[in-house]
Amino acid sequence: MKYTRVEIASTILNRLQQEKPKLQKQFVDSKKQIGYFYLDGLLPVNLANEIFINFPPLENTFLRKSLKEQKYIAYQMDKYNPLLEEVIYAFQDPRVVSLIKEICGLTSVIPDENLYAGGLSLMKKNNFLKPHLDNSHDKDRKRWRILNLLYYVTPEWKDTNGGNLELWLDGLENNPVSIVSKFNRLVVMATHQNSWHSVNKVNVEAVRCCVSNYYFSEEPFYDTDTFHVTSFRGRSSQKILDVILRIDNSLRMGIRKVFKKGIRKNPHQYKK
């Protein structure tokens, strides 16, 4: 069956409206640390399964591998099953954007049609993301990155599989809150100067699949936010790695002070 982004967006909208008071409370209660909410059963199960089935094989994606991260990404959406592009842009439907803005109590929210750092994310056994802050701005450094939307579609994914989102609500010195990358679950989290998050290592021979969107704004989440590149840290048990990553962060920030848009154009964007 063919689904359009408008139809998918209408379903997302209905689920968000059904749970709106609960989601608002969840976001408000966590806003002083890292504002977030999550919603299960976002789409009909048959549609969520179809999205998963049509994810590209790993060999048709791009591997990002370093001390900071190991994951596969896909963002040139016209190379893949059309359903995947439809579901990504369903999250950019003005009705969905407006309701999520309202749930989070924000004044300015703008979706990113270029999928800068968005699109599809796939993680297999031993893949991970170290604790990090997302780049504070869009590709042109004109708008603030303000919300991260993560929609998980791997069936029967459970906590012990690993590959789960970690939110470091009380800083990197304390234990994070773990949000399981559960099938058909949407997570929305704020991105700002203190929104450290990570993905713990995948422990099983399976692929965790995620549809990813970012929203931007003319204003930062907090008035105290400042420009920063994507910044990684080691976990509290990884002292040497943490020093290495801190140095790397400082060097890249130094480069961006001289070259405002970086030395090279980030290829992670959808070129239509």
What top-tier CATH class fits best?
Mainly Beta
Strand composition percent: 15-25%
Fraction of helical residues? 25-40%
Give the integer mean of the pLDDT values.
Answer: 95
Write the SSE topology.
Elements: H1 5-18, H2 20-30, E1 36-40, H3 45-53, E2 62-65, E3 69-74, H4 82-90, H5 94-104, E4 110-111, E5 119-123, E6 128-133, E7 144-152, E8 165-167, E9 177-179, E10 185-190, E11 197-199, E12 208-217, E13 231-232, H6 239-258
Antiparallel strand pairs: 1-10, 2-3, 3-5, 3-6, 4-12, 5-12, 6-11, 6-13, 7-10, 7-12, 8-9, 8-11
Helix pairs in contact: 1-4, 1-5
Description:
Strands 1, 2, 3, 4, 5, 6, 7, 8, 9, 10, 11, 12 and 13 form a 13-stranded antiparallel sheet that branches. The model has no long low-confidence stretch (mean pLDDT 95). Strand 2 and strand 3 form a beta hairpin. Helix 1 packs across helix 4 and helix 1 runs parallel beside helix 5. This protein has 272 residues and is α+β, with helices and mostly antiparallel strands. It has a single domain, classed as Jelly Rolls (Sandwich). The longest helix is centred in the C-terminal third of the chain and has 20 residues. It is 27% helix and 24% strand. The radius of gyration is 18 Å and the shape is globular. It has six helices and 13 strands.
